[in-house]
Amino acid sequence: GNVILDSSEPPPERPYGYGRELGDTSPADYPGLRKDAGYFFGYQFFIVGLLYVLPEEISAWTDEQKEEYTVNKWWDNVTHPRWDPDEWYINYILHPYWGMTYYTRGRERGLSETGAFWYSFTLSSIYEFGLEALFEPVSIQDMIFTPGLGSLLGWYFEDTRREIKSQSSYSFWDQTVLVLTDPLGTLNTIVDGWIETDSELELRSFYRSPSFGIYDDRDWNSPYRQRIDPLVNDYLGLQLTVHWQ
Q1: Domain named DUF3943: which ranges (predicted)?
Q2: Within 13 A of 70's CA, how many CA atoms are on the CB side?
Q3: Residue 78: DSSP 8-state
Q4: Can you list the positions of beta strands (E) in the chain?
Q5: Average pLDDT rounded to a whole number, residues 17-23
Q6: Are the C-beta atoms of 189 and 36 separated by less than 8 Å?
Q7: Which parts of 69-166 fold into alpha helices (H)?
């Protein structure tokens, strides 16, 4: 039967990647799911920002390539999906692996199998239309096989995770399996530890178009000139705000 957890006692220390307690029948943790998705989105832009400031010798990203990445290029990539020419192991092993981890994250937040599939589809879409679309067009087979095969893999490994969780102690191999099947949950747990566990995350995107004003020479030294001068080219913005106590 279901395990009844005594909320008056603190839960025992769990290894990274443990996730939801066995027998936990509480409703799905939708705030946690939103936070996981927000972290996932933020990690991608952190990586892009890091690559942007690193020297070419490390990032393999030339100044000319950096200048090419505009909103128009991103929009062209997301509106012209293609059949991805990547190597087979990338499309049919690596991407489904990540789809499995998204599915597992959904299940560990209390989603049903169907709900976890759609959560995997959502995170796959965030990746395809976010980070990857800065570099190449959206991949048709990634949108199909990442959540599709990934969810099947996640479903298969659920029994393995349950068996490990039911143990009273965890070997190095057990802990490795938990982390590899839920790396996003593991990383989010670490980040939560940095900013306190009682935290909230807000994620907001915005778009700014050029704004042109009309002014003459008398306005050149006006302190309000920056409000009427042409702004920089169109750009996308991302505001990531974390509140903690």
Answers
A1: 81-183
A2: 10
A3: H
A4: 199-208, 235-244
A5: 89
A6: no
A7: 71-79, 88-89, 95-108, 113-129, 140-165
How is residue 116 written in tokens? 């976890």
CA distances 159 to 88, 95, 154, Å, are: 28, 22, 10
Which DSSP letter does residue 139 get?
B
Region 159-170 average pLDDT: 93
Please compute the mean of the pLDDT values over residues 3-28 and round it to a whole number.
74
Only one residue has tokens 């395990």, namely 3
Q: Residue 131 has which token pair?
A: 């980070």
**How many whole angstroms from its chain centre is CA 157?**
21
Query: What are the beta bridge partners of residue 139?
Result: 82
**Helix/strand/coil for 13:** coil
Which tokens is 128 given? 């395809």
Residue 239 near residue 206, CB atoms below 8 Å: yes
pLDDT tens readout for residues 37-59 = 999 988 888 887 887 788 877 76
What tokens were used for 146?
Answer: 């990442």
Confidence band of 196 (pLDDT split at 50, 70, 90):
low
C-beta of residue 46 within 8 angstroms of C-beta of residue 130: no
